[in-house]
Amino acid sequence: MSQLSITLLRLGYLVLLWGMVLVAIGVLRSDLYGTRVTSRGRGLRRKPHPDARSQKSAAPARASVGVRPGSVSTRSPAVAHLAIISGSLKGTTVPLGETSILIGRASTCTIVIEDDFLSARHCRIFPENGQWFVEDLGSTNGTFLGNQRIDDPVPFGIGERVRIGSTTLELRS
Question: The FHA domain covers which part of the protein (predicted)?
Fold first, then answer.
């Protein structure tokens, strides 16, 4: 073998060794500091329409016109946010809108909680017919509304608490 090929092999081995060291450091860093929290939905808020003030005052009068008893309302419930009152994300509040909130360990969830007792997709909180519901998504350790374990969608009222793993969530107005 020529001197050039031996030098290239040495250099290639050195680059491979440093690559493995950097990967190991990255794994240790993610274990020590956890996952990076990214903000979602930033910049998606719409500006209020210029006539919003006049529509707010006229909205209650129009809401009572044409609504039949027993008709289904498609409005979202009048709840402002979901508060995390215990667990690793204690003090976090999540504003609620017209879409469901998915909670679990997976990065695709709305609320990502690093807890060994949570499933990747643990539970969801969603609005339906003017009311909020909580549903367990087949988790191993379960979802509890108060002290009762739930499996099917259950109505979730203001002030009620949902416990998943070591995290407790409360619906607030």
Answer: 101-150
